[in-house]
Structures are given as structure tokens and as C-alpha cells.
Amino acid sequence: SLQLYTHKREHTLEQTVQGSFEPLNENGKLDEKGVHLRREIGLLPAVSFIIGTVVGSGIFIAPKGVLMNSGSVGLSLLVWALCGILSLFGALCYAELGTSFTKSGGHYTYLLETLGPLPAFLRLWVEFLFIRPAVASYVSLAFGRYVVEPFFAPCVAPPALIKLVSILGVTFVVAVNCWSVRVASQTQITLTFIKMFALVLIIIPGIIALAKGGRIYFLFLVFKSENSLFENSIFMLPLAFYNGLYAYGGWFYLNFVTEEVINPNRNIPVAIIFSIVTVTVFYVLVNVAYYTVMTPAELLLSDAVAVTFANRALQGLASVIPILVALSCLGALNGGFFGSPRMLFVGAREGHWPRIFSMIHIRRHTPLPAVLFLYPLVVVMLINGEIYQLINFASFSRWFFIALATLGMLIHRHRFPNHPRPFKVPLVIAITFTAVCFFIVGLSLYSDPWNTGQSCVLTLTGVPVYYLAVHRFRLPNRWRRIFSKLNSQGILLEVAQQEVQTY
User: Which residues are listed as membrane-spanning (predicted)?
Assistant: First the structure.
């Protein structure tokens, strides 16, 4: 008995140091029979998960929005580089948060641990009220557009058909994430390699064009002092940054699945840093390729920039590019549906959402109710949404709460200096990132008061919901019966509460 106890204790201490905790059974081995989310994400799946989620529709759609709001080619390239640096700063902050707090849930968990339950609930509220449906909607709309438009070129593709194909893409991703964590992870790895190949296919013709003399035209565009196409003020720059940051969005998704990452104290920081540096280099090179081959006017007139580029520079492969871009969008969609439901799962586990959403499928070991909950929300917003409005609409709340999370990290550092932090970001980086995020969020209220104002108001609607439904639980008896009946339906979905502690 003493030998078994000693073995268990040593194993538990080792797991604690590595940032994981899974209780041992009576034989001193990990209990694999209990219902829980397994640690199945190694370093390669983690890198693929981040790159595959970041590189989606953004680099093929956002260049138009960045150029439109920045006012010049040179400034737009600067925005792309600065967005990459800012994303790296944020990713480093989240690497510290992800190794300091071993729970899954990302933003929600960090706000809960550092600033308290109300900000955490508001983040959960806006995530599933409009941020996640909006993000998934504009990625799936991009998928549908790149699948459908080649069949109708040069005519305009029917919007209804684009939305139908988009819904089919969402349905496929939901089915994969309900079926198996391993299948979803393998799908992500495959799609990540495909989308990086697509970026290389765009970069190479751009480099060739520069070598053949295109650099003179490119430098002329970059350093041209005025451009009659643009009449924008400095107050439009936050919208340019929103479009650029949208293309980089996804560097925080690995933090949503911390409890499923193998050796998270090592793999989370390494995967985050490697992924963001790689994506930044590729994004800048892709934009250089765009401006080397296309004029700013052509880019602004195109709703599918990569297709227009392929028609100019890759005539022999022009038909392949839309397929690669569509698969890239599918990878980003898969990454979002893999990570975001974990936030809902953890929120329900903490009592901030109906209990059924903290349940796991007893055979598939996936958070089935949380994944299924997203599906109708995405479909509804997809049918009613317009892509650039969705970007501005969702970005305000997303970046506001990211800034709050890193602010909470700084406050937590001050209040609990001895808390274990296996990875610690330099203080100047954390302060810079937090200040820039708050500045962009504040200035965006001036630049686009309608969409950002709506986002702000919808965020605040969660305050009365929190005090009625969570803090005091002063719900009418009819509502309580509805929630109770909803929780009892878990048996129909073959789901149960988590039986093994994974944090």
C-alpha cells in the first residue's frame, strides 16, 4: 500500500509540474474508462490547430478591407506587419495565461480567474450570442463563395447558392467535431498543409514578378504619397486593423483546449510562437505578391482576391486556387468549431450556462451538446449576414475582452506574484499589447459607431442576465422547469458529466 501510494504521489507531482492532472486508478495507472476529454493534442496537431485556424478566409478577403480603410498600399503593408507583431504580443500573453491556468476555456477562464465571474460570463454571453456565429458565418460565406463563383465566372454567382454551400460546409465541420477529437485533429493537420501550399503558390509568382522588374512598380505603389482612390482619415485606421487582425485571428484557440494538450507547459508556448511568426512572414509575402501582380483598383473591385490574382499570374492553375482557398476556409471553420465549444463546456461546468452543455459523449468523448448548440446560431447569422459588416460587428467585443484578459493577467501578477508561471512574457510586451487593444477598441467606436455600438449594447445585455440567471438565480418557475427538462435530455444524446478531473 505504501509503495502504491508513493507511486501515485510521484506521478501526480510529475503531472502537476507538466500542467496536467488525471487521477490514477487503484492499479496506479491513468483512468481511461471515465468520461472525460482525452489529452490527444501533441505539438504537431497544436501547431496545425493554430495555423489552420488563423490561415482561413482572412488573407484572401481582408486585403480589400485593409486597403480600403488604410488609404494607401504602403500603409496597408505596414498594417499587415503591425497586425502580425500585435498578434505575436497577444499570443505571448496567452502563452503565459495558458500555462498559469490549466483549465480549458481560453478568454472565459482567464477572465474568471483574474477579474471575476461577471466579466467571464459577459465573454461567454457575447461569444455565443454573436461573436462565434459571426466569425463562423463570414468564414463559411468565404468557403461558399470560392466553391461556387468559379462555375459562374465571369457572371455573378447566385447569393442563395453561395449560402447553401456555406451551410453544407458548416454541417460537415459540425459532424466531424461531433464524431471524434482525433478525426477533427487529423482533418485540421491535412487542411493546414493544403492551405500553406496555397500560400506558397501565391508567393512564388509574386517573387518571380519582382525579380523580372515588378519591383519598380511595387516600390512606386508603396512610396506614392497620394492615391486618388482613397479619401480616408486617420480615424479609419482602426477598421483597417480590424480587418488585418481578423486575418490573424485564431492565435488564441489553442488556449480553449488546454486540458486536451499533451505537456501544455511546453507545447502551448512553442506552438503559439512558431505559428504566429510563420503566419506573419507568409501574410506579408502574400500581400507583396498581390500588389506586384494587381493594381490597387483591381484589388478593391474583387470580392475574391486570390481568384483575381490567379487569373492574372497563374493562368494554368487558376482553377485550382479557388479549391485550395475553399479548403483553407474549411480548415479555419474546423478549428473554430473545435475550440470555441470548449469555452461553453467550461462555462457550463462552472455553473454559468445550463448544465447539459458541460456533458461529454460517453463513447465519442466529444463535447457534443456544446458543438450542436453553435450550429443553428451560425446558420441563422449566415443567412442574414454581410461579410464586412460581420467583421466590424464581431471585432469590437472580441478585442475588448482580449484586452481585459491581458489586463487581468497584469493585475493577477501584481496580486499573486508567487503563483506558478512556467512561461512569463516580458512586462513591456503585455502592457503594450493591452494598451494598443484598448486604443483600437476605443477609436473604433468613432470610426464605425453603428456596428461597434450595436456590439457594445449587445455585450451589456448580459449584465441583467447574469444577475437574474447566475448570480441570484431569480428565474421564474417555468424557466427553471425548462432548464431542468433540458438537462434531463442528456440521456437522449448519450452524454454524461465529466468523471475525471483534467485540470
Answer: 41-61, 73-95, 129-148, 160-181, 193-214, 234-256, 268-293, 313-333, 366-384, 390-411, 423-446, 452-470
